[in-house]
Amino acid sequence: MYYVYAIQSLIDNRIYVGLSENCDRRIHEHNSGYVRSTKSYKPWILIYKEECGTRINARAREKYLKSGCGKEFLKIKYSQVAQR
What is the pTM assigned to this prediction? Predict the structure, then answer.
């Protein structure tokens, strides 16, 4: 089972979208500094998680959420950090 997730930085409100078979482990990796693209913006909080079944379906959903429309959807519906 694959999941698409979105996390938000508590530093500058940026949103990162990814996919994983184990979201808890992956978010721990983001917050521990193991992911080069996110380590400068930790800590991260989970704002969205979606079960997608196959990797192909998860990749398609991840691609949408990384688009302009997808990011806007996440900002409006799921953003947990107050806008500055």
Answer: 0.89
Helices (H), 1-84: 23-32, 55-66, 68-78
CB 17 within 8 A of CB 66: yes
What single DSSP character describes residue 83?
P
Q: Which residues contact 51 (CB under 8 A, 6 or more apart)?
A: 1, 2, 3
- Residue 43 in this model has a pLDDT that exceeds 60: yes
In CATH, the architecture of 2-78 is 3-Layer(aba) Sandwich (3.40)
Rg of the chain, C-alpha, whole Å:
12
> What residue spans define the domains of the chain?
2-78
At 63 the three-state DSSP class reads helix
List, edge to edge, every strand of the sheet that includes 15-20: 15-20, 2-9, 44-53
- Alpha-carbon distance 13 to 45, whole Å? 10
